[in-house]
Amino acid sequence: MKTFHIEVANDSEEELITKILENLQQKGMIHFSEIPEHESAARSMRASEDQVHEIIDEAELGPYYSEKEAKDILNL
Length: 76
Hints:
The chain is an all-alpha fold.
């Protein structure tokens, strides 16, 4: 199962997006629940240096790019 984070770019479209997600949930295609904004901000965590190095290693960028370049490529 994958988890996605969705941010509605235009507040006027929020109702439409919510209805689409609820429709997909009714069809059994997804599980949908809204996370209050204060909780979603608390969930975000920065990766530790060890985690960053592991991500760079997994992406196999180490041999080809400097650490700074790899971080920029991976948006870390």
